[in-house]
Specification:
With 159 residues, the chain is of the alpha/beta class. The protein is 26% helix and 17% strand. It is built from four helices and five strands. Helix 3 links the parallel strand 3 (95-100) and strand 4 (117-122).
C-alpha cells in the first residue's frame, strides 16, 4: 500500500518555483518559475535577478527613483530567465509554474514560445496596467492561467 500525505504535482512544481525564488537577491520581491512538459518533467527553472555577467553588487535594487537608478532597467524576471536558460528549444504545450503572475513583457515571451498554461501563486499587481495587458494577450492567444491555492501542508528543508 502506498503512503498517505505525499505532495501533489501542483504542490511539487510550485514548491520548486518557490525554492527557486529563494535564489533571488531582490530585497523587495523574490519570484521563481518552473517550466514543465506534458510528462511532468522539469525543463527549466528561473528566478528574478541580474543577467549573467552583471554583478548583483554593481546594479541597483531600489524600487523608486530615476529609471537607471532602479532595478527595473536591469532585472531579468523569473519566467524570462526560465525560458532563456531552458535547454529545450521547443516549449510548445508546456506549463509554467510561477510565484507571481507574469508581467506583460514576460507574457510576450511565454506566448511566443508556445507555453499553453500558467499556474501562478500571487497576483498582487492584478489591477496594474502591465498585468491587465498580460491577461488580455493571454486570453487572445489562448494561453490559460490558473491561480494556485496553497493547501495546509508545510515542508521544511535543511540546507
Amino acid at each position: 500500500m502506498k503512503r498517505d500525505g505525499y505532495i501533489t504535482w501542483d504542490e511539487y512544481f510550485m514548491g520548486v518555483a518557490q525554492l527557486a525564488a529563494k535564489r533571488s537577491k531582490d530585497p523587495g520581491t523574490q519570484v521563481g518559475a518552473c517550466i514543465i512538459d506534458d510528462n511532468k518533467h522539469i525543463l527549466s527553472v528561473g528566478y528574478n535577478g541580474m543577467p549573467i555577467g552583471c554583478s548583483d553588487d554593481d546594479f541597483p535594487w531600489e524600487r523608486e527613483g530615476a529609471m537607471l537608478d532602479t532595478k527595473y532597467a536591469y532585472v531579468c524576471h523569473a519566467e524570462l530567465n526560465a525560458i532563456l536558460n531552458c535547454k529545450a528549444s521547443d516549449l510548445r504545450g508546456t506549463t509554467v509554474y510561477v510565484t507571481l503572475f507574469p508581467c506583460n513583457e514576460c507574457t510576450k515571451a511565454i506566448i511566443q514560445k508556445g507555453v499553453k498554461h500558467i499556474i501562478y501563486l500571487d497576483d498582487k499587481y492584478h489591477d496594474m496596467d502591465m498585468e491587465v495587458a498580460a491577461r488580455k494577450m493571454l486570453d487572445s492567444a489562448g494561453v490559460t492561467y490558473t491561480r494556485y491555492v496553497p493547501g495546509d501542508k508545510e515542508i521544511t528543508l535543511k540546507v
